[in-house]
Design goal:
It contains 16 helices and 33 strands. By secondary structure, the protein is α+β, with helices and mostly antiparallel strands. It folds into five domains: 248 residues, 3-Layer(aba) Sandwich (Rossmann fold); 86 residues, Elongation Factor Tu (Ef-tu), domain 3, CATH 2.40.30; 69 residues, Alpha-Beta Plaits; 108 residues, Ribosomal Protein S5, domain 2 (2-Layer Sandwich); 94 residues, Alpha-Beta Plaits, CATH 3.30.70. β5, α3 and β6 form a beta-alpha-beta unit. α2 packs parallel to α3. The longest helix has 18 residues. It is elongated, with a radius of gyration of 33 Å. InterPro entries: EFG_II, EFG_III/V, EFG_IV, EFG_V, EFG_V-like, P-loop_NTPase, Ribosomal_Su5_D2-typ_SF, Ribsml_uS5_D2-typ_fold_subgr. This is Elongation factor G. It comes from Rhizobium lusitanum.
Length: 653
């Protein structure tokens, strides 16, 4: 079986392309994953094929990455409008990182749009590989009525519901065809010395030699050929499928590529897992591609026995099924197989680094609808994070509530639907509270005496303490300057422990940071003093001193690294400023052509707004990662509102 992925932005007709390709020589068999990955099995040219139709949402990009991991080649489906080229930038980025041979298909050429050369020029801004036209459109007025193949120099007229008709190249297209063909030959000659000689000697190269060179440079991932068509009308589908059949590399090339990227012995690489999901009453289903012979139910794969092998289309298990080299199959009761992973008979190897998903930008607390659901939710989220690498599961620091980090609102909606439909857990979501802190703005001193008599031995401790603001980031410090044994040495650790306890909640209701406490005097009683008494005296005394120290609210500030196409960099300065952030600068992303890395300091309470602003400003393409940097003071009405909200019942910080 040969396998390819069709990927690209939403609304570019990817699913229609797959449907048309699968129906060229018979009826395809389709299956779907809850994560939006559709698999279509079909036959073409007496060969078995599997097309992986990756979801088009940028929030589901990780599933497209995993599909590429299993693919001999891919088709990047793009719009015929030049202004929409930027939407393909994330896909070009992952395709090039994966080193997957790619054919770029400009779909919906029947719709009004820009010139094809403008589309290619706009896309080239995001591709290190040369985008090389293999076809040009034939126009009749404003309509595209056919295409001309630049290698064979044959022209075809589209016919609705029928195969295209061979025609002579129209005079109106002859000059453009000659120009585009010359450009094609010039680029191909960079990879073939014989072709270069023929061009220098002004000899016409034979078509079969050009097809052979084209096939080789695609298999070697040297260029990205560009084909055109309109899948909704079936236009260009046969030519696209023939290009895949004759030019896409065999599964052995994929095996070599994965072994090299994963540092695995190629001779031992047996299979790779690339997708998984949970089904009601079935459990975890893992999709695997066979990279070697001999796989069947019960054999050792990844260090344990392979579970039941299932047909993709009908989900039925058959112990007699023996997947052939290159076959894609499903397996259940193989929970030991992580996804994605490279598999030998006795070991599991990590996938290449390029499969890492982008950092989730949206954080939400999931609130279960019942106590029964509360008990199930933690275990279920752990299961889902195994099959969805775009999901991160944590606990809220202050409450221990279930905190999920997702790629965006669509991803969150799909997660909640899976919890309800598959695991019967109903949840609502809320925004997590930023982690605020407080400190003091001025020093103060306190003399606190703890005395308690309840019959028998009493409690007595007397402490004199001074507190002062520490420099930012130093945290809590404790020192003592007691002289003459006023406070015995064995009680001083208890004084420090009491002071630390007082830091857990300050006058504003938040944890206190960056404060220094000094014990400079006190008294004790030979009978009634104890560690407990001094601990209590210290805690109460420090609390009193904090209330005198002009408490200041502290907000968290995060260092954010924002990844965006360069055309959006200018507008981001205003967005960051509007969020009261600080711009640190930006630079070209050396790993992705046409992208910038924009660095800024963003208040923790504005991260949700940053995610929304970034999605809006970049049409959902931009993303950011964050790391905590420091706490800074927050004053005025905003600080007062946060303190009031914190005092309300049920609000946790």
């Amino acid at each position: 079986m040969r396998c390819f992925t069709v990927l690209g932005p939403s609304q570019t007709g990817k699913s229609t392309v797959v449907e048309r390709l699968g129906s060229l020589e018979g009826a395809p068999r389709k299956s779907s994953s809850p994560y939006g990955l559709n698999l279509t099995e079909f036959t073409f040219g007496n060969e078995a094929w599997c097309a992986l139709d990756a979801p088009g949402s940028s929030e589901a990009l990780v599933h497209a990455q995993h599909a590429l991991l299993a693919s001999d080649a891919c088709i990047l489906c793009v719009s015929s409008a030049p202004e929409e080229a930027v939407l393909a930038a994330p896909y070009l980025r992952v395709i090039e990182a994966s080193e997957t041979p790619c054919i770029l298909f400009v779909n919906r050429m029947d719709e009004p749009g820009g010139r094809l050369r403008d589309v290619i020029a706009a896309l080239q801004d995001y591709a290190n590989h040369t985008l090389l036209l293999r076809q040009i459109p034939i126009r009749e007025g404003d309509r595209i009525i056919g295409s001309c193949d630049l290698i064979s120099e044959r022209a075809w007229r589209y016919r609705e519901g029928q195969t295209s008709a061979l025609i002579a190249i129209p005079e109106s297209a002859a000059e453009r065809e000659h120009e585009a063909r010359s450009e094609l030959l010039e680029h191909l000659s960079e990879f073939d010395d014989r072709l270069l000689e023929e061009l220098i000697e002004d000899r016409e190269p034979p078509s079969n030699a050009l097809y052979a060179i084209s096939s080789r440079v695609l298999r070697e991932n040297r260029i990205i050929p560009v084909l055109i068509g309109a899948a909704s009308h079936g236009n260009g589908m046969m030519r696209l499928m023939k290009a895949l059949r004759h030019e896409a590399p065999p599964v052995g090339v994929l095996r070599q590529r994965l072994a090299r990227a994963g540092n695995v012995d190629e001779n031992k690489l047996t299979a790779m897992s690339f997708h998984a999901y949970h089904r009601q009453n079935v459990g975890k289903t893992v999709l695997v591609r066979a990279l070697g012979e001999g796989l069947r139910q019960g054999v050792s794969l990844g260090g344990s026995s392979l579970g039941a092998v299932q047909h993709l289309a009908n989900g039925k298990s058959n112990s007699a099924v023996v997947p052939a080299l290159g076959d894609v199959f499903a397996t259940v009761k193989s929970d030991h197989l992580p996804v994605p992973s490279l598999l030998t008979s006795d070991a599991v190897a990590a996938p290449p680094e390029w499969t890492e998903p982008t950092t989730p930008m949206l954080e939400r607390i999931l609130v279960p609808g019942s106590e029964r659901d509360e008990n199930k939710l933690s275990e279920t989220l752990a299961k889902l994070s195994e099959t969805d690498r775009g999901l991160t599961v944590l606990q809220e620091e202050s409450t221990g509530a279930h905190l999920v980090c997702v790629q965006g609102p669509v991803h969150l909606r799909d997660l909640c639907r899976t919890l309800s439909d598959v695991f019967h857990i109903d949840v609502t979501d809320r925004t997590p509270s930023p982690i605020y802190r407080e400190t003091i703005a001025k020093p103060s001193e306190v003399h606190y005496r703890h005395r308690k008599q309840t019959g028998g031995a009493g409690q007595f401790a007397d402490v004199k303490l001074s507190i002062r603001p520490n420099e930012r980031g130093r945290g809590f410090t404790f020192s003592e300057t007691v002289k003459g044994g006023a406070v015995p040495r064995n009680y001083i650790p208890a004084v420090e422990a009491g002071a630390r306890e007082a830091m857990e909640k300050g006058p504003l209701g938040f944890k206190v940071i960056d404060v220094g406490v000094t014990l400079y005097d006190g008294q004790h009683h030979a009978v009634d003093s104890s560690e407990h008494a001094f601990r209590t005296a210290s805690k109460m005394g420090v609390r009193q001193a904090l209330s005198q120290g002009a408490a200041v609210l502290m907000q968290p500030v995060f260092r954010s690294e924002i990844h965006i196409p360069s055309i959006y960099s200018g507008s981001l300065v205003q967005s960051v400023s509007a969020l009261k952030g600080q711009v640190l600068g930006f630079e070209r992303d050396e790993t992705a052509k046409g992208w910038d890395i924009f660095r800024a300091l963003i208040p923790g309470g504005a991260l949700d707004d940053l995610a929304r602003a970034l999605r809006s400003a970049t049409q959902g393409i931009g993303y950011f990662s964050k790391t905590f940097d420091h706490f800074e003071e927050l004053y005025g009405k905003e600080a007062d509102a946060i303190v009031r909200a914190h005092e309300e019942p049920g609000v946790a910080h």
